[in-house]
Amino acid sequence: MSNKSLGLSDRLYHYLLSVSLREPEILKQLRQETATMPNCNMQIAPEQGQFMALLVQLLGAQKALEIGVFTGYSSLAVALALPPGGKLIACDIREDYTAIARRYWQAAGVAYKIDLRLAPALETLDALLAADHAGTFDFVFIDADKENYAAYYERSLALIHSGGLIAIDNVLWDGAVADPAVQDAATVAIRDFNQKLYQDERVRLSMVPIADGLTLVMKP
Ligand code: SAM
Ligand code: CA
Prior knowledge:
7-stranded mixed sheet; 8 helices; globular; alpha/beta; Rossmann fold; binds calcium ion; binds S-adenosylmethionine
């Protein structure tokens, strides 16, 4: 897994950051703390966090869902972009990773907006559907185990309302999706998912080559 922007030279990438990245200090601190961890490249890129925050504000989102929290960078970027009355339901299975996330949500003053559900995300999504949350979400970010992407997507599509947006991360998978020699389970899952989504006439989509690839799906 990668979080660097694919296909840009280091020089151009640093230029892009130098003229566009406005990273809040608290997100920068979280990025620095996460950088000391072995799985630090699971974190989204800072320019992607800024892009997602812009999307959330363009949508005027009030109710958001995140599948895959890790140490909380994307959830914090989204929660900071939500209005004071906004809510983010955040799904993960790891107490240790999300303890770091919770510490930063507190420090940033947005913990009250975030409802962390520590359980396999499919269970949380099914519980939300069973509790009448279908058609109520404005924004969903999918970034957990890749083998479940198709299942997360179907549930997310039911959970958003018309005009709602789903953002799916790592759709370019460090380039492996375009290399037929790579056949591991995660790569095949993302490759099949991308193909299925391309043929899904229920939605409008755009695959954005930011960071490791982010597909945006709108429910008309
Ligand atoms: N969005 C995060 C960020 O910005 O730092 C990165 C998320 S990381 C790529 C994927 C996360 O999904 C991990 O924290 C992992 O514990 C979680 N995860 C893996 N399988 C899961 C499952 N079945 N249900 C919920 N979360 C899961
Ligand atoms: Ca990711």
